[in-house]
Amino acid sequence: MFRLPDSWVWDFWTVQDGPTHHLFFLYASRALHDPDRRHLRASIGHAVSTDLRTWQRVADALVHGEAGEFDATATWTGSVVRGPDGTWHLFYTGTTVHTDGLLQQIGVATSTDLLRWDKQPGPLLRADPRWYETLGQSFWRDEHFRDPWVFADPHGDGWHMFVTARARHGAVDDRGVVGYARSTDLATWDVLPPLTAPGTGFGQLEVLQLVRVDGRWVLIFNCLATEFAAARAEAGGPGGVWAARADSPVGPFDIAHATRLTDERLYVGKLMQDRTGAWVMLAFRNDGPDGFVGSLTDPMPVRWDAGRLVVEAAGALIQPD
């Protein structure tokens, strides 16, 4: 388990370089007392491990920018990929508070060693109003365009980016979609229409991840019950970590029939392979007996069961700090 004694830890992502797993995570001081205040104080920390269980914290990756910059308020969730020239790219969410809400945009920092990161001029991308909801268009006080998940096209045709976004049409409580952008060089990106349609029962699809587990593509996303559309909320049941069938790396994705991997005790599930090659999931501990927990689990095995992805070791959901 990864826990900081003085800070909450929540959203995270990993990348592997040789035998070493690099963990990038959002954190904020517990001196804030109220965990709901953590979001506007978030920085991106960094730790390393060879077994996904024992972590050594190293120097932080990124902090918020200066006044007037696109990430002046906080740095949020992202992903890391290695370019053809060996340069590492950390795509992340930059946030800025405006009078009418919170603007979310996407930027990038680069590194040669995964340890020192240099922000590049940004932002790279923001919500295109042709397809995506922007500030002031609904009851949400955010312009959703965050959590970039970047991966190379399996056939060598450039790079894909999935983004947490909301469509500009449809029932206001049911506009969560997989936002989408493409690039040929990791530097210049084209924002394109979403890969899914609104109306699947989710107000937002947070912290997306696409993986191929034992030969099957699956899209992982996260949504709490408080962010369900009305029909899904009326059906009952908690939110949590979700898995949706994917027919290819760019869909179609069966969001409406996504299955829940965990309840809300865990959030932001990420799938990866351990040193034996087995598929496991890490997540952050969200709801506990005393409220928000703010630490990461140990790896939990995942497997296919009758066509459905399931997480084993349920006891890990409630292990004590």
UniProtKB/TrEMBL annotation:
<dbReference type="InterPro" id="IPR051214">
    <property type="entry name" value="GH32_Enzymes"/>
</dbReference>
<keyword id="KW-0326">Glycosidase</keyword>
<comment type="similarity">
    <text>Belongs to the glycosyl hydrolase 32 family.</text>
</comment>
<dbReference type="GO" id="GO:0005975">
    <property type="term" value="P:carbohydrate metabolic process"/>
</dbReference>
<dbReference type="GO" id="GO:0004564">
    <property type="term" value="F:beta-fructofuranosidase activity"/>
</dbReference>
<dbReference type="InterPro" id="IPR023296">
    <property type="entry name" value="Glyco_hydro_beta-prop_sf"/>
</dbReference>
<dbReference type="InterPro" id="IPR013148">
    <property type="entry name" value="Glyco_hydro_32_N"/>
</dbReference>
<protein>
    <recommendedName>
        <fullName>beta-fructofuranosidase</fullName>
        <ecNumber>3.2.1.26</ecNumber>
    </recommendedName>
</protein>
<dbReference type="Pfam" id="PF00251">
    <property type="entry name" value="Glyco_hydro_32N"/>
</dbReference>
<dbReference type="InterPro" id="IPR001362">
    <property type="entry name" value="Glyco_hydro_32"/>
</dbReference>
<keyword id="KW-0378">Hydrolase</keyword>
<feature type="domain" description="Glycosyl hydrolase family 32 N-terminal">
    <location>
        <begin position="20"/>
        <end position="223"/>
    </location>
</feature>
